[in-house]
Here is the input.
Amino acid sequence: MKWLRSNLFIYILAPSTISLLLMAMFFSGNDTLQSIIVPTMPELDSNSWREFGLLENIQHLYIVLIFIFCLHAIKLKARRIEKTAAAFMAIFALFILLEEIDYGLHYYEWAYGIPSEERIETRNLHNSSKEVLQNIRRTVDIGMALFFLVLPLIADRIHSPMVRYLAPNRWLLGTALCIIALSEVSHSWDDYFLALHDGAQHKLHKNISEFREVSVYYIFLLYFWELVYRKKWSTTQTPLPSRAKEPIS
Here is the structure.
């Protein structure tokens, strides 16, 4: 099945299909399908339910894979600066994973039956306040726009070999555009769901951006996969290809 290894599938169809399938399951109105995405766990605070669902755990899987890629890069890459950068990114990926799983607090609360009223309120750094969360989201949005939408278009005009080495290929630009479109779809379906149920709150109330995060971690997964396994550092100033080379069969 060679088409599964094509750029069109890897960069466009796969992330779109995964996100749309998750959204369709959650907004289907079917309790079983919705519980796969976000289970109902009365023994826990409702804000922790999604941590045990498929939506969050796909995100965790992507981060773990990024962590593994970075560790592998320490062995694969020849230059010391690459090895050092890979080690730093592995540590950063581990930090992001710990932030996403609330440093294991919800697992601890579930395993030991901690009542929801005894739940620790401040569970991670990025959710310590609305202002902090908004600033992080704004910074990430601007950074991703510049890195995945602008840099691929101008990288071949930049004379720095390092910039060309680090620049995403133009297929990732397509992935970034898919993220924007999918985010709009998730919010549209959310509005439709609320209208259909007279504004009744669902299990991802005010957390609909979790669907977007799946695609965000996917694009970074692809980027690190490219950087570790498909790119080699070159001090020459050869132009950056406009698209990634085809995956090896």
